[in-house]
Prior knowledge:
Layout (H helix, E strand, L loop, with lengths): L1 H4 L11 H10 L7 H11 L4 H11 L9
Amino acid sequence: MKNCIGCTYISDLPRYRYEVWEKMKRISLDQYTLKQLDDFCEYVFGIRYWMVKQMQEREGTFEKSECK
């Protein structure tokens, strides 16, 4: 995600919440475990992954693009 957003450090990701949010809607998260997604979302957004997923589903967005 750091590379997708263009951050120098992982610690910069919480400052780019909007960009991370938008990128998460477009990439496949299937390769990550629930624990990894939970830890990531808590670090960046301060909330659990299931909450992020629920909000994104409400937005009706899960378009996929390439970014690894």
